[in-house]
Amino acid sequence: MNLPFDRWRELLGQLEVVKTYYARLTERERLIVLGSVAAGILFIMIVIYSALLAATASMDSRIEKNRKNMKRLQELQSVYIQSERQIRELDQMIRRTDPSFQAATHLEQLARRYGITIDSLKDRPGPPNDLYRETQVSVSVRQITLRALMSYLFDIETSRQLLRVSSLQVRPNFTDPTLLQVTFVVSTFQPSQGT
Question: pTM surpassing 0.85?
């Protein structure tokens, strides 16, 4: 119980020893001791101040880095949300496609609308995928005007069914310079049997 009181008494005793030692010093020695103590205190204060400045600078740097990371994260979040929305829309379009839909028949109907004669039309399976079944139709037209081609491709791409032109080759028709020779592949998608 008396331990803290004894500790104080011991500390006061040591302080008396220091006071007595200081009293025995000459004026010059006292100035040296006071200067040394003042320099030591000043040095300690400078060290503490420097450490605080370094910690503050480090914290400012971390805050700025975290702000940049947060901004980048928000940008990525908006890209993710937009991508997710596009995926949902594509998935809805794929699920909305009638199981009996035939891309080749649809392409022939669109071609008739523009008076286009299709020279060759071949169905082939697309690359395998777990989420959907892709069917590709290879179309070849030997004589078509640029305007008719643009309208035809626009109607394919904006069709209610999910149709995408996945490759396109256009060459000039050497017998008539106003016409083109075109070969392209149209992909259509349907849900996989498992989904």
Answer: no
